[in-house]
Give the backbone structure.
Amino acid sequence: MSLNWVTNFLDWFRPPTPVVPENQVSPELLQKVRAIQVKTNYLANDLMTGEYVSAFKGRGMEFSEVREYQPGDDIRLIEWNVTARMGQPYIKEFKEERELTSMLLVDVSSSGEFGSVGKLKNEVAAEIASILAFAAIKNNDKIGLIVFSDIIEHYIPPKKGKAHVWNIIRTILDFNPEGKGTNLNLPLEYLINIQKRKTVTFLISDFQAKGYENTLKLAKQKHDIIALRVVDPREWDLPNVGLAHLQDAETGESILIDTADRGMVKQFSQLCKKEFLKMKTFFNSIGIDIIEIRTDRPLVEPIIRYFKVREKRRGI
């Protein structure tokens, strides 16, 4: 192990100067940010960087030059203006972009303030976003952030560097949203409007929303979108605690349910699973993969598993 590698490794663990001075950040938040930075930096460095590179390298293409057409070339790449001028067919050549731009779209709605096994869904979402941010930065890619609920809460333009990642993590962990509900149309429309070039977009949410299908289709036409659905097992597997009030954190609506009625609980569970299968089928039909992240299980494994599947799909 070279001394240079050790120096770089320790340097990544050393927090950079935050965008907001430390004396304006509470000690509790500072400790939490540093803890998640160390944890997610390790995971991104040792577990995910290789998979990230293999899954996403070369996704962006930029125009390079034109050359004479050769038998077997794709006729869809013919450059007609040059062809007309030169009197013989020419085609456009492209090269892989040397860097990617990634966007994190993170749901901070009130439904994320739930967790039955030690972690809230919004805490898991923050860790996921942190790991993906570190993976992007370690591969010299730009990373940006859109925080949303039923409004656009905050936007950080894509940049490089560990100070930038620090700012993204701190923003996610310390964010106090104004909205309570979830409107997936807003971040997708915002993404379409502000990012003119293709990005790798990670949409992190529990997807407790409706009516976003058409906007998602439009966003997919322009960007490479991967959905990460954060769920808690108690959202479909209710324990037997007798009569219980279940309240929707976003709308405030509540219902009384008898959890001792196992037949009803089973129907409830089946309905939840059916809704997820319906959503997954739709996502797949428009070319979007969806990764399920559970609060009661390690969150890195399903992401790595997906990256490996994606790598094989690309024939690398």
Q: What stands out?
A: The mean pLDDT is 79. The two ends are 29 Å apart (CA to CA).
